[in-house]
Each structure stands twice: as C-alpha cells, then as structure tokens.
Amino acid sequence: MAQTKKKAVVLLSGGLDSATVMAMVLAEGYEVHALSFRYGQRHAMELDCASEQSNAGAVEHRVVDIDLSSFGGSALTADLEVPKHDHIDELDGQIPITYVPARNTVFLSYALAWAEVLEAFDIFIGVNALDYSGYPDCRPEFIQAFETMANPATVAGVQGHKLTIHAPLIDLTKAEIIQHGLSLGVDYAKTTSCYDPTLDGRSCGHCDSCLLRLKGFKDAGIKDPRPYVED
Amino acid sequence: MAQTKKKAVVLLSGGLDSATVMAMVLAEGYEVHALSFRYGQRHAMELDCASEQSNAGAVEHRVVDIDLSSFGGSALTADLEVPKHDHIDELDGQIPITYVPARNTVFLSYALAWAEVLEAFDIFIGVNALDYSGYPDCRPEFIQAFETMANPATVAGVQGHKLTIHAPLIDLTKAEIIQHGLSLGVDYAKTTSCYDPTLDGRSCGHCDSCLLRLKGFKDAGIKDPRPYVED
Hints:
The structure is a homodimer.
Chain A: E1 7-11, H1 16-27, E2 31-38, H2 45-54, E3 60-65, H3 103-118, E4 122-124, H4 140-153, H5 155-158, E5 164-166, H6 174-183, H7 208-220
C-alpha cells in the first residue's frame, strides 16, 4: 500500500524565493498545496509565474482574492511611485514604501485556514532575513511568533497537533537560495521579482527587489534568465 | 485646540457582542474605525446590522470581501446543515461544524493591516469565552498569542509602539454583556446572531448562536427585541 504523503501548504508568490521553497518541500516528499493571492498588487504578472511554478509538482494551486489595497499604505497596492535606485548600496535600511502592512500576517492566516481544512500541519513561506528589504514580517521573530499563535488558534492545536511555520530560506543569502534552487531544478526564468515590470514582462532592474535579485545572481556567478529593460 | 482622539479598529459583525464592544469603545472616547467582512457567510444579513450599528458613532465602516468559503470546512460558509437543538443543554462542548477555520486569525490580521495604515494601536474584538460555542479562536490564550505576534509583525511594533488586542467581553456572561450594552444605549433590535435566519430576517431560535442569545436575554430578565420564527 502506498504510504500517504504528509501535506504541506506552500505560499507561492511567483518570485524566486517561494519557487525555491516549493522545490525544497517537494524534495522532502510532501504533498504540496500551493497558495497565492491576488491582493491588488500592481505587478500581477507574479500570478502567472506562480501558476507556472505550481505545475512543477503541486497537487493543487489556489489563488485567493484579497483586498489589501482598500487600506492603501503601500506603493505595491496604491497609486504611489515604486522607488528606484542605481545601485544596491542606495538601499538605506529604512522600511520602504513597498511594504504592504501586515501582508505576511494576512497571507499566513489564510494558509492556516486552509491547513485546518486540509488537516495539514506544515506551512512553508519563503521569507528571507539576510538579503531582504527590511520588512518587519520577514524576520525570524515574526515567524516564530506566528507559529506560537497558530497553535491556540486552531482545532488542530487544541487537539494536540503541532502546527509548524517553516521558513527554510530565513538564514540564506540570495546567492545561496539561487544555487540551492538550481540544484533542485528550479526554472528561474519562470519567476519574477520586479515591483514595477513593463507590460511585456521585463523587469525594471532598479527597484529594491530587482537590485537584490541581480546581486544574488551576480554573487552566484550565474546570469539571471529573466529579461530586463536594459538587456 | 481640540485634543486628537485615540483611534481604534473595532471588528463589527452585526451581532450582539460586537455591537456592545463598539458602544464600550465609543464610551471610552476612541475614534472608531469599524471593520466587517463579507466572507461567504450564509447569514449575510449580519452586514446590514453591522452597517446600522456603525451609524451609532463610528467615523467610518469598511466591509472587506474575503474568500474563506473557497476552503470550505464550515457549515457557515459551505453547503452543510446548521445544527439545531431544542434546548441549550444539548450543546455538547465539542467544537461544532459552524466553526470557520482560523476565522478570527484572518479577521484580526486584516484589522492589524488597517491599524498599521491608520496608525491605530488598539484593536477591539467581541469574543467571549464563557457563553460561547467552544471555538478555539475565542479563548483568552488565542487573543494573548495574537497580540504577542502583532508586535513583531508590524512597523508600529518595530518602532516601539505597543499594539493591543482588546477583548473586553472575554470574561462576561451573555446576560452581563446585554445588561452592559443596554446601559450604554445599544439597540439590540439592530443586531442579529442567528446562523440560519429566514429570508425576511427572523432568527431560527434553535442554532447554537440563537440558544446562547436567548439564554442571555432570559438570564438578564429582558425580552430579546429581535423577531424569531416561533414568535
């Protein structure tokens, strides 16, 4: 009799990090239920990439509509200019206006709801605390606090199951993430990281997210397969 | 110069509990930003009541569409029968199928997102751990754990503000809630608690929520102003 695989809910954004996480979770033998969000982001091309990534082995992929843009407060969901820089050293360590308030809290809450229904006890998120933009909800203390909250929040927790929020990239550099993903066969041409891509899908090369991604590929000694405006 | 009021985000469901909470928050002098959800609930009449309640003093009322029904798993959002009983003693202490997985986690996450944008540091929710249906996310340990998570999750927390999740009804009986609300002028005719109301707005009188409400009014020695099927 075939052994039943453990189920995992994997947050899949269409970006480089979550594509890598999904490959890691598949390699560990989980049955992957992929979850993405249409949250008023200006760079909705992410969702096409998430869909392509999910084809790499998820048993299902749900895209949930959520309405974070109605609160405003971020350049990713409101009509604010996405900041651009010539060089990564210009990132000043301040929390940038691309921060979407409480986004990862909302995303993980939906993942928790779905995990309850699926009877899955493992949720994976591709946050990364080294090469990142300084968002508070990408830090290990946030992930740990969410896990601590998830157990009393749910029937699973009350019944003595242990819900775990996994953030396997949390301590990796972008270059390490890319190298690890390539070893697992991730196709990074089918991921997008740009906050402000052109209509035909080229990355701007100057937003925080592009600068972090480009530095990662450069440090890894590999050319980013994604097209850029200045290619 | 007029003193600026402290802002609060108040979760307003249209039910008895959250209407009482809103009256308490207004009485404490907060500027109230009321938040409701259209989450695929079968008893959408709640939202009309929430709207009427918000007119009692909130500076604004947002209704956010969320998509919990796509996950299923609850009689409130899926095509499952709402359990009915003849008497409150038949509630057996098990978590009933009206439980919506991780609902309060999702609701509070949105409240947190809005609080970030508003620069509000106080969120109020009308959960109650005495006369309730045994949902895990109505217990004090959940509320405390969410607050502990909310601080590292947000810019406000990182900047040293203290976000507080208030659950002022947590230790009150339903009768005490009703008596307190009446002293603050809450119009309970404009609240609904039924999980399965008729199309013309009468409460069934037999779902868990009706039974808890009816017992509360009986214990308070007051007639519930809401119409019931068997009136």
